[in-house]
Amino acid sequence: MSNPTIALLGIGLMGEPMARNLLEAGFALAAWNRTRAKAERLAAYGARIAATAAEAAAGADVVITMLENGAVVEDVLFGQGVAGALRRGALVIDMSSIKPREARDHAARLAALGVRHMDAPVSGGTLGAAAGTLAIMAGGEAQDFAAAQPVFGALGSAVRVGPHGAGQLAKLANQMIVGITIGAVAEALQLAEAGGADPALVREAIRGGFAGSKILEVHGERMLKRDFAARATATVQLKDMDNALDAAGGANGYRLPITTLVRDMYASLCENGGAGVDHSGLFLEVGRLNGKAIPK
Amino acid sequence: MSNPTIALLGIGLMGEPMARNLLEAGFALAAWNRTRAKAERLAAYGARIAATAAEAAAGADVVITMLENGAVVEDVLFGQGVAGALRRGALVIDMSSIKPREARDHAARLAALGVRHMDAPVSGGTLGAAAGTLAIMAGGEAQDFAAAQPVFGALGSAVRVGPHGAGQLAKLANQMIVGITIGAVAEALQLAEAGGADPALVREAIRGGFAGSKILEVHGERMLKRDFAARATATVQLKDMDNALDAAGGANGYRLPITTLVRDMYASLCENGGAGVDHSGLFLEVGRLNGKAIPK
N or C: which end of chain A has fewer CB within 10 A? Predict the structure, then answer.
C-alpha cells in the first residue's frame, strides 16, 4: 500500500484542508460530501468528486471518514453501502470523534466483511488540519497502523495508543483534561478577581510554574478578555464529557467524580444561555453560580 | 533602600538557599531559625547568626519571613518581639504561604506600628530557591514593591498582583489549578487504562495539544511510573485547597464547586493512607474510588 487510492467521506471544515494535504502529497483521492457543493471545490486540486459515498469507496484502498458523530459514521458505512462497496483488505480510517464502543462495533462489523478498521480521531482543529500538523490518536492493529503511516504523515503525526476504540478513548482523555483544566483556570481567576487581586497579573505571575498549561495560555486569555466567541462550543465540550462518562460505563461504571461534576457544569452553562459560547465560557458558569447572569 | 540590611527568619529547605542567594548578591544578612543549628550553616557564607528573631530584626531594613503557616508567622512577628524591634519604615516581606486574611491582618497590625508589609509567597520549590528562579507573587503597596525589587531580583522574579493579601490569593489560585489539573490528568489516565488503551502512549499522543500542561508532563509521568515519593505532599495540597476555600469565604462565600470536590478527594486520599504521598497521588484516590486499595 505504498501509494494507496483514498476515498475521503465528509468534506467539512476539517475534511477539506485534509483532502488538500492528501492531494498535495500525491495521493489519488475521491471526495464525497452529503452537500455535494462542498466536495466540488476540491476538483480544482485534482480530486475525483463522487456522487455517492459508495461510489467514492469503490476501488479505494483506504477510506477516511470525517463525520459529525457515530450515528452518521454508521449510516455512511453501513446504510449508504460503503462497507459493501469495499474490496476485501481495504482499510477504513475513521477520523471522526465518536464513542469508543461505536468504533469497536464498526471495526467488528467491517472485520466480518474482511475490511480493516482503525479509529483515528484528531486534535488540532482547522488550523492543524490546514497546516498538516494534526495530532492523531489511533486505535487498531499494529500492522494497519504501520500501513497507514504515509496517509497519517500527510495530515500530521500519529501515535497508536492501543486496540480498536483506544484512539477514541485517547481523544476523550484529551477532552476531559481540556474541560477540567478550563474549570480549574475559571475558578482560580474568578476567585482572584473576587478577592481583590488583578486576575491578569495573577495569570502572569503563575503561568511559568506548575500551574502553566496551554489552557491557561489560550483559554485563560479568552476569560480575561471576556472573549467567548466559539472556537469549540460549550455544547461540543458537553458532548465530549458525556462520551467520556459513557466510555467509563455510565452510572455503574468507572467512577470519575471530577469529570462528572464538570460535565454537569457544562450542562448548566448550556441550559442557562451559554450553549453557543466557547468552552472557555465555563468561566461564565462559575460567575453565574455566584450571582452574575450570563450575558446575552 | 539601595543596599538594605536583611533579616531572614526561617532557615529551612527554602530559607537556606534563599539566604545564600541574598548573601551572594551582596546583602548584609542576619539569619534566625527556631532550631539554631540550621541557621548556623550560613555563617560560613557571611551571615550573622542571631539568637532570637527580635535580635535578627533589630536594625534591619527588610525582614523576610519564610515559615510554615500563618500562626507561626504571627507568633514570630508579634509574639517573639519582631514587630516591636523594627524601626519605623522597615519592610516585612512575608514569603511564607499563609491565608490572605492572615496576611491582611499582619499588614494592618504592622501599619499601626509604622512598619510596612508585603505578602510575597513563592512557587518553584527548593530547586527554584537554589537557582534563584522563584516565581514571587506579591501583594501590597506599589512603592514598597518597587523598593523590594533588588531583594526579589536575587531570589527570582516577582509580579505585584494587587493589594495586601493578593499575593497569597495568587498563590492559592496557583495551587487550585495545580490540584485540579492533577485530578484531570489522574482521571484521564485512569480511564484510558481501564478502557484498554496504553496510558503512556495516550499521554504521548495528547501532550502537544490543548491538554498539554506542566502537570501532564511532570505529575503525569509520576502517575505512569507509580512514583509517589513526595515532593509536595497530599497533606500540603489539602491545606492549600482548604485555604483557597477559606479565602472564598467558606460555605456561604464564593462558590467553587470543582475546588470543593478536589479538596474532598485530597481529604479522602489523606484519610485512606495517602497523607504522605506526593500530591500526584490523587491518581491513587481515583483508583481507590474504583476498588483499588492505596498501596502501603
Answer: C
